[in-house]
């Protein structure tokens, strides 16, 4: 059976699939990035994972994959296949497309094409064409993961900007003088509203160094006042970022996805209230991608075939 490799590299985890020509999922797998062991270990983990996926396809279907699509966080040069910079994974000017092409070229097989894309822009493209933004002329997709990034969708395509930074809402300053960001600035949105930021704040508030965003969401549901305070600070920062983006871009729909969006109503109910509390006319509808439930005005987005749309950033 003809198939392709789809690989999403997040800040802490990797998600992958073998896809049929109609977009159906034939096989899925996940692995950690191993970023605690350094950048070289992350690169080795990516190459090993891709090679194992190719081997899985050969074993299951008797043929090599037709192509591979790889989505990564940070700044990328799609034309030349270079992962330019990632604050969370530590690489600079990594020729990832070439490295993957070399690794996937098995003896006796032709070299397979490899496409390198930005994780959130790839997710935004999938949502715009196949998911919650289908049929909408202007979409803003925001992914809440290890960091925060966004994608600007216009008539079924993604606007990357003049230098490839379009949609980088995670580095919009919402709290001047706030926490130091990996980009060097202070008060960026991702230092306050990403899964990593919630994890850090909840670990400090709870006194549990192993606490994370998922356990914070569970504590919010249980009515823990400390968790509620942590959660609300993040929600308020996210609302400020959304309003700023709305004012500049005027999208018809804002789709919020990524790992933190798995909290569903726990996130979207206070987020909607925080947006309304700002007292600004908010024209866009807000869709929560893959949330387990919907509330008035906050419908879960439909799934796309591209794994980057699931939980960019890990």
Describe this structure in words.
The protein has 314 residues and is an alpha/beta fold. The chain is built from 8 helices and 14 strands. The protein has helices spanning 39-61, 96-104, 119-130, 190-193, 195-206, 213-221, 225-249, 265-277; strands spanning 3-9, 13-20, 25-32, 68-72, 75-77, 82-85, 92-94, 114-118, 138-144, 148-154, 157-159, 253-257, 285-289, 300-301. The chain has a 6-stranded mixed β-sheet, sandwiched between helices. The chain is globular, with a radius of gyration of 19 Å. The protein starts with a strand and ends in a 13-residue tail after the last strand. Residues 290-314 have low confidence and may be disordered.
Summarize, please.
By secondary structure, this protein is of the alpha/beta class. It is built from 8 helices and 14 strands.
Strands, helices and their partners?
Layout: E1 3-9, E2 13-20, E3 25-32, H1 39-61, E4 68-72, E5 75-77, E6 82-85, E7 92-94, H2 96-104, E8 114-118, H3 119-130, E9 138-144, E10 148-154, E11 157-159, H4 190-193, H5 195-206, H6 213-221, H7 225-249, E12 253-257, H8 265-277, E13 285-289, E14 300-301
Parallel strand pairs: 1-4, 4-8, 9-12, 12-13, 13-14
Antiparallel strand pairs: 1-2, 2-3, 5-6, 6-7, 9-10, 10-11
């Amino acid at each position: 059976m003809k198939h392709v490799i789809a690989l999403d590299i997040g800040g802490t985890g990797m998600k992958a699939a073998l896809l049929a020509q109609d977009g159906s999922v034939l096989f899925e797998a996940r692995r950690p990035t191993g970023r605690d062991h350094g950048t070289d270990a992350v690169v080795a983990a990516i190459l090993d994972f891709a090679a194992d996926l190719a081997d899985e396809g050969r074993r299951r279907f008797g043929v090599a994959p037709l192509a591979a699509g790889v989505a990564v966080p940070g700044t990328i040069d799609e034309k030349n296949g270079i992962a330019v910079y990632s604050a969370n994974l530590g690489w600079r000017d990594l020729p990832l497309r070439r490295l993957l092409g070399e690794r996937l070229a098995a003896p006796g097989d032709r070299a397979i094409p490899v496409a390198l894309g930005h994780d959130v822009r790839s997710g935004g493209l999938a949502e715009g064409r196949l998911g919650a933004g289908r049929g909408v002329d202007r979409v803003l997709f925001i992914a809440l993961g290890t960091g925060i990034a966004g994608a600007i969708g216009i008539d079924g395509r993604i606007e990357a900007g003049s230098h490839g930074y379009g949609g980088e809402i995670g580095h919009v300053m919402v709290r001047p003088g706030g926490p130091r960001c990996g980009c060097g600035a202070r008060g960026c949105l991702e230092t306050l509203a990403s899964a990593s930021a919630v994890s850090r704040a909840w670990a400090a508030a709870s006194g549990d160094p192993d606490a994370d965003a998922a356990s914070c969401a569970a504590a919010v549901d249980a009515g823990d006042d400390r968790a509620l305070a942590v959660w609300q600070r993040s929600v308020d920062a996210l609302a400020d970022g959304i309003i700023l983006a709305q004012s500049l871009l005027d999208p018809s729909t804002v789709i919020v996805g990524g790992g933190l969006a798995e909290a569903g109503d726990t996130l979207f109910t206070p987020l909607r209230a925080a947006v309304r509390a700002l007292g600004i006319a908010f024209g866009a509808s807000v869709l929560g991608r893959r949330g387990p439930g919907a509330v008035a005005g906050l419908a879960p987005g439909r799934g796309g075939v591209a794994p980057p749309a699931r939980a960019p950033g890990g």
